[in-house]
Amino acid sequence: YQAVAEDGSYRSMQSMEKTIVIKEDIVQLDRATEQHLLTEDVIIDKAEAFINIFLQDIDQDYKVKGISTKEALIDRYQDIVSKQAVQPYIDYYFEEHDGGLYIVPTELPPWFISGNPYEVTQLDNGNVVIEQENEIDLYGRYRILIEFSQEDNWQIVRIEHLPAEDEQLDLI
């Protein structure tokens, strides 16, 4: 309060406060700009989170613990993947019966492999498509396209499994 008594000190403090506010605005703007970029870390985090959908905690009968419906499972991962993109996977890998949700024991789908090269395409609507070609013993050579869209955060909105050139891929 002593600064209020002297005009010069008061103005000086007021000036400092404005500078701080301006700097905070710049930092917030920088953070907002960073959030709009689909970084490799975000791609890997979202891809790993998607695969975790199929790695639920289960009992000896393959009943998922803590989630009793497909809809509840979809809701749990809505920040990662849209309902439209994940629904075919949920329908294929999970069953609802006897008042519970059960995982169908099978292999994970062919998926994005971090560390392998991939192509990034920016679409006119602001979405970003990641395309990667991989080869694994179980599926052979395949391509995967993962489309990301951003509202509050990046979300997977479309997934396509395509055969690599001159290959066939039978999936979901």
Task: Please describe the topology of this protein.
Layout: H1 2-5, H2 7-36, H3 40-52, H4 70-76, H5 83-93, E1 94-97, E2 100-103, E3 119-122, E4 128-136, E5 140-150, E6 154-163
Helix pairs in contact: 4-5
Strand order of the largest sheet: 3-4-5-6
User: Tally the helices: what do you get?
Assistant: 5
At CATH level 2, the architecture of the largest domain is Roll
Proportion in helices? 25-40%
Whole-number mean pLDDT: 82
Radius of gyration: 24 Å
Shape: globular
Given this structure, which CATH class of the largest domain is correct? Answer: Alpha Beta
Tell me about the biggest sheet? 4 strands, antiparallel
Low-confidence stretches: 1-35
Number of strands: 6
CATH topology assignment of the largest domain: Nuclear Transport Factor 2, Chain: A
Q: What would a concise description of this structure say?
A:
The protein is an alpha+beta fold and 172 residues long.
Task: Explain what the structure shows.
With 172 residues, the chain is of the alpha+beta class. It has 2 domains: 7-35; 37-163, Nuclear Transport Factor 2, Chain: A (Roll). The protein has helices at residues 2-5, 7-36, 40-52, 70-76, 83-93, and strands spanning 94-97, 100-103, 119-122, 128-136, 140-150, 154-163. The strands form 2 sheets. It has a 4-stranded antiparallel β-sheet with strand order 3-4-5-6. A two-stranded antiparallel sheet has the order 1-2. Helix 4 packs across helix 5 (83-93).
Labels describing this entry:
172 residues; alpha+beta; Nuclear Transport Factor 2, Chain: A; 2 domains; two-stranded antiparallel ribbon; 5 helices; 6 strands; 24% strand; globular
